[in-house]
Prior knowledge:
heterodimer, A: 114 residues, six-stranded mixed β-sheet, 11 strands, 0% helix, B: 115 residues, mainly beta, seven-stranded mixed β-sheet, globular
Amino acid sequence: GESVGLHLPTLSVQEGDNSIINCAYSNSASDYFIWYKQESGKGPQFIIDIRSNMDKRQGQRVTVLLNKTVKHLSLQIAATQPGDSAVYFCAEKGDKAAGNKLTFGGGTRVLVKP
Amino acid sequence: KAGVTQTPRYLIKTRGQQVTLSCSPISGHRSVSWYQQTPGQGLQFLFEYFSETQRNKGNFPGRFSGRQFSNSRSEMNVSTLELGDSALYLCASSLGSYANTGELFFGEGSRLTVL
């Protein structure tokens, strides 16, 4: 079946550095991608999304890049702060054949070192 | 504006029992989706309800069921609990069917432990 995966399960980052979290997806027909952040003891929180007709979208300190050629998605966090420590999930919305379901990746834990 | 509210937050059951979890979506949201989160399987989609109708269903056995009421509140039920059902059950709401919007607002979850 189609799936969304991540390359790195844990990412340690020095405070102030930039973070890059990667995600691979397998359904070339997926048209919508989302990044979520989950802090300990809380539910996932929407960070940023991107539609398949775009290759880059910027938010506050975050940028999502989409490379449809290699089916790769990344989340860049600028000037990482201690509050950015969390697990980050990418999610892919499948096409109609896939029931338009959101499929989540396994998650990457980001640890920010002071 | 209140967020998504899930009750209970924590519960312990034994094998063979059944459990009902409740979710109150954000006011005005008509779609409620349920997810199971475990360390081994990650976030897995259970089902989505929109305007009291099940719109989508994940690959879970029939022991997992749900419903949505006219006020958009939703419940999910797991019957004949198994040890492997121990998980964090997350509810998420969205304004429209998430098939169209994709942006979900999650609650803090109900952590179920099956002994």
